[in-house]
Amino acid sequence: MKQITFLLIAVATLVGVVAFTAPASRAANEGAPAIFVTKIPSGYRDWKLISVAHEEGNLNSFAAVLGNDVAIKAYREGKLPYPDGTIIAALHYGHVSSEENNKVFGRSQSFVPGAPTNIQFMVKDSKKYSTTGGWGFGHFKDGKPGDEALMNTCFPCHNQGKARDLVFTRYAP
Asked: What integer best gives the mean pLDDT of the chain?
């Protein structure tokens, strides 16, 4: 009787240890949680305009900031935090003086988009990107994702805007 009791306790203990350690080892094999967007979302060129941006200094760029339907609805309703499924795209271009327009104006005052510089994305998925405030960040140049060093700069900067759910751009109706 003592042997059967001992055997049952040993088996129960072994089952408990296996059950407890299996999820931990599975999680360790999956690696760190995702924080970067590595694929350009399809159809982004057809999204609606949220706003435009002009950045000076080293960037010296224009940007069209676009949002998918989930983003536009949230912006229009003033909904914070943004719901999962929100995707915001920023299409950045250098800017150049428009000689054609300046001739009409009689002075140098008109600038137009020049060569594209990069496309940036923010994708809201509160579970997948839980370690970065629920947002995945993407930066693409010539269709290729930014390297890890560049991508590691996104969240610390955006995290300063917690009151606006890490989003800088305001809606320009």
From this structure: 85
